[in-house]
Every structure is written in structure tokens, then in C-alpha cells.
Specification:
This protein is of the alpha+beta class. 34% of the residues lie in helices and 27% in strands. The chain has an eight-stranded antiparallel beta barrel with strand order 5-6-7-8-9-14-15-17. It has a two-stranded antiparallel sheet with strand order 1-2. The relative contact order is 0.07. This is Outer membrane protein beta-barrel domain-containing protein.
């Protein structure tokens, strides 16, 4: 019925041999009979006609006369192995010790059996101790070793399963508690829990290690006062700030912004001819030179607005505003509008907002000591319209004072 019936795996447990055999199933295999043969013994035939897919069938083939006329050593050895299967380890050891006194003793085999039972007793007792100490991970590993020595130990099998459940539950509870402390920014309480998760080799150990790295970086930055916040003063934009990280060992970053009060007037639509709202934005990188000095640099942008149309048709010279209004038109009347005829005029009631902008890279130095920080910044401006370079300015300096934390 079957082409072959060769075991695909064979294991040895003590004096027993375990053979694993696979068979195809289905209606065409009804009536299958399995014959077990061994030289010097009767053949035993077992019916496997009702074998289902993925069904496991365990058969135990033993010599019923193994205790009869077996001799001193073999008799005590066989009784010891039977007690081993029944998990009576102390009784099994007694049988192996008695076998030592037999005249026909196989010393090498008997010593191996004694070492086997001693190992099982040792690992079992140690596993029980760790289980009672709630060290479920190590206990599970030791119960697993017991099963490697004696796969018939149902107690060790149940204990191992129980340990794994308790171990997973314990890991989940530690992770939830650590994440709670973390979310509440109680890092000194969260850190030991994350470390314990890693030490216990929990399923979430990778995430825990990532959180450890993040918290240690944050605490190190606090210790070194790596974060700096400063008030930044620039002549035309006196309302400004900068925030950045000035790390001890690696590159940091910063962001800065400054405006003048006309920006807020512009937001309320209260600006008139002569008002010049201005906004500066910059960002970049910070690098330590030698404590307590850092350098920083990066790109930026400047936008400066003006009111009125300062590129009228019919005038050769472009007119730009100043604080007194139009320098070339005291009556506040200008020739305007690409959509109007040359020579038409309008009053300041018809003004509109225009914007000039520039690319404004920055560079500077920062000094921080303890909780105090000082920044000096140089800004160069590349006006996108060269006719507006004087209006927007070609460079600017700013001074920043603040705190490091």
C-alpha cells in the first residue's frame, strides 16, 4: 500500500529508540496495517485504516519479558528506567545504585544512567526554586532541560507551559508600567523597568531597548543643558527667538525667527504707506568647537513688505518707501499700474502691499555655561530682485541672550 515506511527521524532516549514515520491518508489507503518487527521477537500488527490527516498516533513497543531471567544488572537497570518514565526519580536512582553492585554490571552505561537521573533531579529542584521565586523565564528553561532528559515527565511539561504564560504576563505588565511612567515623564522610574524587560529577554525587549536609548539621550541632554532658548534682537526685527540643541558629542540643530511690530499691524490690516513689515526665518546645524563654544550655520529667508506700487510706468527711477513716505512724491501721488494708461495717478488710499524677499544664510557662535546662553549671529541677504537689495539690506547682525536647559 505504501511505497516506503522508513522513519524520517530517529531519537534515542535512554535505552529507548523513538521512530517518526509519516503516511499519506485518504480513502485509497483504507485497510492499512502496520507491522512492527524485531529480530528474536514476535511481529505485532496494528491497524491504521482510520488514520486522519495531521493525526498523531503513538505506539509503545516493549518486551513483556524484559524482567524475566534478565540477570542482575539488566533487571535493576530495566526497573530503574521504568521508574524514570514514571517520574519516580529517587526510586530510579536506587535501582541504578544497586545495579552498580551486580557482577555483570555495564559500568559505562550504568554511570550514564546515574548521571541522567542526577541531572533530572538537579534541574527539577532548581526549576522549582526559581518558580517559587517568580523567575519564570529561567524556570521554564530548566523544565525544558528536564524534558530533554525525560520526555515522559508530564509534570515538567505542564510546569514549563505555566511558566511561559506567567513570563509573558509579567513582561506585559512591566511594559505597561514602564510606558505609564514614560508618558508621565517619570524617567527614573521607567528606566529600571525597561532594563528589566531587556534583561529578562521579554518579547518586547527590542522596543524597551529603543526606549532606554531615547531616555538616556534625553537625560544626558538635560545633564549637559543641551537645549538652548534665546531672545534674539536685530535692528529692524527686534522681536525674535531661537531654539536649538547644542550637543556635546554630535551635531545638533536650531531654528530661529524674528519679526517687527508692523507684521502684527499687517495682520490687522492697519498698515499704511511707509510701514515695512519684515520677517526673518532661519534654521541649520550646531557643532561644538571647544566647551563652552559652539558654532552654528544654515540657510534662511527674509521677507520685507512695502505699501504702494513702487514700479510705476512712465518713471525711469523706481521709488521705494522710507519712514516719511515717498521721497520723490510729497503729495503721495504716483504714476501707477500696468493695467492703467501712462500718466494716470492715484492717492495713498489706493495703496497695496508688495513684498521683497531674499535668501538669508546665517552663521555665528554660541556660548553656554550652566543655565546661561549667549548667541551672536551674522546674516547675509541675497535679494531676489537686485533693485531691492538696498531696500531689503545686504546684511544683518543679531544678539541673543537666554537659557540652556
Amino acid at each position: 500500500m505504501d511505497k516506503t515506511a522508513n522513519p524520517y527521524n530517529t531519537l534515542a532516549e535512554g535505552n529507548d529508540s523513538i521512530y517518526y514515520i509519516e503516511f499519506p491518508t485518504g480513502s485509497r489507503y483504507r485497510g492499512r496495517q502496520l507491522s512492527i518487527k524485531s529480530p528474536g521477537y514476535n511481529t505485532v500488527t496494528i491497524s491504521l485504516e482510520d488514520l486522519k490527516p495531521k493525526q498523531a498516533v503513538t505506539l509503545l513497543a516493549v518486551d513483556p519479558n524484559s524482567m524475566v531471567d534478565a540477570g542482575c544488572y539488566r533487571g535493576h537497570r530495566n526497573r530503574g528506567l521504568e521508574e524514570l518514565k514514571k517520574m519516580n526519580y529517587n526510586e530510579a536512582r536506587i535501582q541504578f545504585e544497586v545495579a552498580t553492585e551486580c557482577s555483570d554490571v555495564d559500568t559505562i552505561e550504568n554511570n550514564e544512567n546515574l548521571a541522567l537521573v542526577d541531572s533530572i533531579i538537579y534541574y527539577r529542584n532548581k526549576a522549582e526554586l526559581l518558580f517559587n521565586m517568580h523567575n519564570y523565564r529561567e524556570a521554564a528553561n530548566l523544565y525544558k532541560k528536564v524534558l530533554m532528559y525525560n520526555s515522559y515527565d508530564s509534570y515538567a511539561n505542564d510546569r514549563q507551559a505555566e511558566c511561559m504564560l506567567k513570563y509573558v504576563d509579567e513582561c506585559s505588565m512591566m511594559m505597561e508600567q514602564a510606558q505609564y511612567y514614560d508618558s508621565e515623564k517619570q524617567y527614573q522610574q521607567a528606566l529600571p523597568l525597561y532594563r528589566q524587560i531587556v534583561e529578562n529577554d521579554c518579547p518586547s525587549r527590542l522596543l524597551a531597548q529603543q526606549q532606554i536609548n531615547r531616555i538616556e539621550l534625553l537625560l544626558n541632554q538635560r545633564k549637559n543643558h543641551s537645549r538652548v532658548f534665546t531672545y534674539e534682537y536685530t535692528k529692524d526685527t527686534p522681536i525674535g527667538f531661537s531654539y536649538g540643541k547644542y550637543n556635546m558629542h554630535k551635531v545638533g540643530g536650531f531654528f530661529g525667527m524674528s519679526v517687527n511690530k508692523n507684521v502684527f499691524d499687517m495682520m490687522r490690516n492697519d498698515c499704511t504707506v511707509g510701514d515695512m513689515p519684515e520677517v526673518n526665518v532661519n534654521f541649520g546645524w550646531t557643532i561644538k568647537i571647544a566647551s563652552p563654544v559652539w558654532v552654528f550655520f544654515g540657510p534662511g529667508a527674509t521677507v520685507k513688505c512695502y505699501y504702494g506700487d513702487y514700479k510705476p510706468i512712465g518713471l525711469k527711477d523706481k521709488i521705494y518707501p522710507n519712514k516719511d513716505g515717498f521721497p520723490n512724491d510729497p503729495d503721495n501721488k504716483l504714476v501707477v499700474g500696468s493695467d492703467q494708461k501712462e500718466g494716470s495717478v492715484y492717492t495713498n488710499n489706493d495703496t497695496k502691499a508688495n513684498a521683497a524677499w531674499a535668501i538669508s544664510p546665517v552663521a555665528g557662535i554660541a556660548v553656554k555655561y550652566s543655565y546661561f546662553a549667549l548667541r551672536l549671529t551674522y546674516q547675509y541677504r541675497f535679494a531676489m530682485d537686485t533693485n531691492l537689495k538696498d531696500f531689503i539690506g545686504q546684511q544683518a547682525f543679531s544678539v541673543g541672550v537666554g537659557v540652556s536647559f
